[in-house]
What does this fold into?
Amino acid sequence: MREIKKVGTEHIEEYLDIYLNSYPAYKALDDECRNYYREKTIRDMERGVDVDFFGCFEDGTMAAIMKIVDFNINLFGEMKKTKGLMSLGVHPLYKKRKIALDMVNFFEDYTVDSGCAMAVLLPFNMKFYHNMGYGYGSKMDEYRVPTASLPKAENTDGLRFLSADEKAEALACFRRFVEAGHGQLMKFSEEIEAMNSDEVTKYIGCFDGERLAGYLAYRFEPASDVNYTLNRIVVDEMIYESGAVLKKLLGFLRLQADQVQTVVLRTGDPDFYHVLEDSADISGNYIPFGYIQTNVSAVGVMQKIIDPDRFLEQTAHRKIPACRGRLTAEFAYKYELVSGMNWITIAFEDGGWKIDDSGKNADIQISLRLRDLSSILMGSMRVGSAVRLGIAQVTKGADRLAELDAYLTPEQRPFGNSDF
It folds into this structure.
């Protein structure tokens, strides 16, 4: 018999057996390590603010674990609830029994029952989740550039280091940053605790009067095993409310060029390389034909719009400035792992979108999979690109595709740097 249910501290040893075996990286796996994670996990379980712990039991024995996070996400300018899957792990003796599949299905049902339309996760295996209907989110770009390539600081007015007592101000600044950016996830309790207890990361803030308008969270790393004078700065968070604030923060980093030769920056803005005086990274990599490497890219958050109708209802506030006429688009989509097709028709009019239930034939019809519909509706992929690449097919109204593409493409691609 297989049962999935919430678990607490009464199952702490079984939970740790699975967790430590599933996530052994950077862990000694000795008694000291186990004691540390026992104390941390008990603390997290007892707090119970926005994370629930679940276990899957086979004939009474815990065979798998996961956590479900209650997230706040910016969807086109308004904060909404979504659920995140975290720390999914299967006992080494219970693998290849489709337990992970059952856990994910439970997570999705739990998400829908909670009133959410969309689920998010960070994949341990992109193919596994892609085949389950999760669409790729937007890419994160990592830049490793010479410090001297950053823009010069015109002035350092308003820049100062934040003390440990000012972490609350940094969180408030981060909250405003999230509230201004589609697809951003608010920090959850475990992230906030890690931030407050971190004694290694440095914070440089940019103030506009008394208001913290942006900050960098960064740390130093050696850049050489044999030369202690070679260092780099790794920026884990780059939060800013305007381009002027960003330039001041980058200018601060450039001022460290005498001590730090390279800087590592991560961003979800695809146009960030235009900020750099020399956008070539330190790899020296040359890509045919005539292209010089600027950064590496990675996919993190994946999303699945489990209930597209509910998603449209929850994002009826979305503003689409380009939409001045009326266009109806029907999407025929297939749920992965389930036979048959589903349909949703969206009406674009009056500068927004909504479900069209008029019953009239749509102006354009597109056929695709749910995972790709999820990426398109969130704005991580353009519908025009999906058709051009053969990911989606237009079955009617190809002459309206460019118009639909303009309506579905948000001003800012969704991006988040939450670690869960």
